[in-house]
Amino acid sequence: MIPVCRVADLPAGTSVRVDTTPPVAVFNADGEFYAVDDTCTHQDASLSEGWLEGCLVECPLHAASFDLRTGQPTCLPARRPVRTHRVTVDDGMIHVHPAAEEGTAA
């Protein structure tokens, strides 16, 4: 379990990059928190620098889009999903549970 930040420090519509191996992006999509690997599966680009619309994040490089709930790409050029990670909130602190620690993708 990795502490990310306080809920108050990640307003709706924003994201934060967690410098783990591999890096993880945590998003606040209208009050719901999601975490995915931060690297687009189409080409090396940081998803935390992309555009968030509802539960979708658009890669800033070639406009590939991913559903944060499942990691599945929603349009080309991405064909492979990004790995998702479980997120919990405890006493106002956001935590990411990396999929590797969970034993499988969350």
List the helices and strands and how they pair.
Elements: E1 2-6, E2 15-18, E3 24-29, E4 32-37, E5 51-53, E6 56-58, E7 65-67, E8 84-90, E9 93-97, H1 99-102
Antiparallel strand pairs: 1-9, 2-3, 3-4, 4-8, 5-6, 6-7, 8-9
DSSP strand count:
9
SSE pattern: EEEEEEEEEH
Strand content: 35-45%
Assign an overall shape: globular
Give the strand order, joined by hyphens, for the main sheet. Answer: 1-9-8-4-3-2
Largest sheet: 6 strands, antiparallel
How many helix segments?
A: 1
Helix content: under 10%
**N/C terminus separation:** 13 Å
Unreliable spans are none
Helix and strand composition category: mainly beta
Summed over residues and divided by their number, the pLDDT gives a mean of: 94
Q: What Rg do the Cα atoms give? A: 13 Å
Summarize the structure.
4% of the residues lie in helices and 40% in strands. The chain has one helix at residues 99-102; strands spanning 2-6, 15-18, 24-29, 32-37, 51-53, 56-58, 65-67, 84-90, 93-97.
Structure description:
With 106 residues, the protein is mostly beta strands. 4% of the residues lie in helices and 40% in strands. The chain has 1 helix and 9 strands. It has one helix at residues 99-102; strands at 2-6, 15-18, 24-29, 32-37, 51-53, 56-58, 65-67, 84-90, 93-97. The chain is globular and about 40 Å long. The chain starts with a strand and ends with a helix. The model has no long low-confidence stretch (mean pLDDT 94).
